[in-house]
Write a structure and sequence with these properties.
By secondary structure, the chain is α+β, with helices and mostly antiparallel strands. Helices cover about 20% and strands about 45% of the residues. A hairpin with a 2-residue loop joins strand 13 and strand 14.
């Protein structure tokens, strides 16, 4: 498969310098570019968010606490699934809670949910799933709607399936529960898996460099455009990247253009909560770089970037340490 070169090509020539290596990592980060089963609940990519409802009147601190409690619910949900505990899993719903899958199967109430999960686990000995939230909005003080993607893996011999999910959550006696969890067939465009990137980002404090990146959709939401600027003690860089689906392969691909003339590209392959980018490119001075880059989504406001297995022309380079990138929150 073809690969990506990222915005730090010329800095990799300075690999003996620890400052240059840190700046190189930051540049990479800036330009980077079914049914329920045992799950790893992850904050991850999903469908582009739908138009948001009017913001809740609750103070921001209260909403942040509620968001954290809902994330805890997903973590508990995942543990119950991984333990193959149908009773505990059903307990994450309200007493009259409902589950609808993409094939039209419905279960109403905890008893029906427990029976359904028991049967599912018995028939599916090898199964895991990623539950990846794309959006969360509060409808009232005690209700919220979360949307995202559930990806189900049923062992090496069975295909991976994905579905869009919509979860209605309510707070009962101070505890958040699922009132309805509904799956629907998902548009398989892999661009949806990167919708969470849209917005402005910067390097976290203590990373040793200043990174600012803005990701935005094009008019038809076929490509994501990234504009970046990076400043370190010794070097500064800027450039542009385009991420989209390669029509030849149907897979995610990116093209990077440095302001100094360097170019590169990459294939993106997803594995759970991270993407592996196999990267190649040409620096402004004509030398070539090959590397593997790992983008790992931590949550909706944080990701890390690391570059490994690097080679400049025929000379190997040291791996770079992960760099933490955080979303710039905008006032509404």
């Amino acid at each position: 498969m073809r690969s990506l070169t990222l915005l730090v090509r010329y800095l990799n020539r300075l690999a003996q310098s620890s400052t240059a290596r840190v700046l190189g990592t930051a540049l990479l980060a800036a330009g980077f570019g079914s049914s329920l089963g045992p799950a790893r609940a992850q904050e991850g990519a999903g469908r582009p968010t739908r138009p948001a409802a009017a913001p809740s009147a609750a103070p921001p601190a209260a909403r942040a606490k509620d968001s954290a409690e809902i994330r805890e619910l997903l973590t508990s949900f995942a543990k119950a699934v991984e333990a193959r505990d149908a009773k505990a899993l059903a307990g994450h719903w309200t007493a009259e809670g409902e589950y609808h899958n993409a094939q039209g199967v419905r279960a109403n109430g905890r008893d029906a949910l427990e029976a359904g999960f028991t049967t599912f686990f018995a028939k599916t000995p090898e199964v895991s799933a990623d539950l990846q939230a794309a959006s969360l909005r509060f409808l009232s003080a005690d209700s919220a709607l979360q949307e995202g993607t559930v990806t189900v893996h049923r062992g090496p011999a069975a295909p991976t399936t994905r579905a869009h999910y919509s979860a209605l959550l309510v707070r009962e006696q101070g505890k958040w529960r699922l009132a309805m969890f509904s799956e629907s067939e998902r548009d398989e465009s892999p661009m949806e898996d990167l919708a969470w990137l849209i917005g402005q980002w910067k390097s976290a404090a203590g990373e040793g460099v200043e990174v600012q990146t803005t990701y935005s959709w094009d008019a038809n939401k076929k490509f994501i455009h990234a504009q970046f600027a990076v400043k370190g003690k010794e070097r500064a860089a800027s450039g542009h990247q385009v991420i989209g689906v390669d029509p030849e392969t149907g897979e995610l691909h990116s093209w990077t253009f440095e302001a100094n003339g360097g170019i590169g590209e990459a294939d993106w392959n997803r594995d759970g909560d991270h993407w592996l980018l196999t990267a190649t490119g040409t620096l402004a001075d004509g030398s070539s770089l090959a590397e593997s880059n790992i983008l790992r989504r931590v949550n909706e406001d944080t990701f890390t970037w690391q570059s490994i297995d690097r080679q400049l022309d025929d000379a190997p380079l040291d791996d770079l340490a992960p760099v933490k990138i955080t979303r710039i929150k905008t006032e509404k």
